[in-house]
Write a structure and sequence with these properties.
17% strand, 33% helix, hydrolase activity, globular, eight-stranded mixed beta sheet, 272 residues, alpha/beta
Length: 272
Amino acid sequence: MDLLPMHQFKTSDGAQLEYFDTGEGQPIIFIAGYRASAQTWLPQVRHYQSKYRVIGLERRFNGNTISPLHNKTIFRQGQDLHDLITYLNLIQPIVVGHSMGGSTVMAYLALFGDTNLKAFVNVDQTPKMVNAQDWHAGMYDLNMANMGTYFDNPLASPFYKTPTPELLQIMKTVAAQTDDSKYTLQLTKPLLLSHAWADWRGILENVTIPTLFMAADHSPFWPSEHATLAANLMKNGSAVILKDVGHGMEYEDPQQFEAALDEFLNSVAKWK
């Protein structure tokens, strides 16, 4: 099948990353999760490109990116998002981040604030992955005691239902064109640990742009209550829990995902 045409740009530390860019109007940036290709946003590109300028960032250590192997931190991922926004001279884009893509946006917010963002959609990413006495909506069974070894084994499947036939074909096509040996679990474990160590709750308390936390009622990674808890930290936060889907909600039920996103985007258009 035909994939989205990709363009390249160079980051501030010399990495060569890819992105797609199509449509016109209010820019909206989609950022996929760990080991997920930007190409998996193809259904959303088709849905939104008539009304928005739709951009997708292929994060470093994904796809065909060429990245220095020493910058394996979630804050570098946030810097990469800033570099893309700067490179494309985007004014107040809306950002949609799934899983580690959501953490990428929160790292951006920690580094640069929300002044040049219009809105933020966090797709099933808890703001604190390590469970603690004051936080029980982290990754199932992840705590300070087992932090060092938790990611030694492959993660559980993110899906509750089988992805749509189109998404399965996209993933198959991407896999055939990508050298996965470059970014094995062993090589990317430091990034996973950086991602998991982060506690974004204090950052979210200072964010004023409209923010939607989307959760899945059958996520294998964390309880859906994380979305409401995170939204309650914010001045303009809201939450929605999608039904009968897992962590990969946009793969499993793109129509339900887009309906929830549409409702939020319509409210953002009216927001002052």
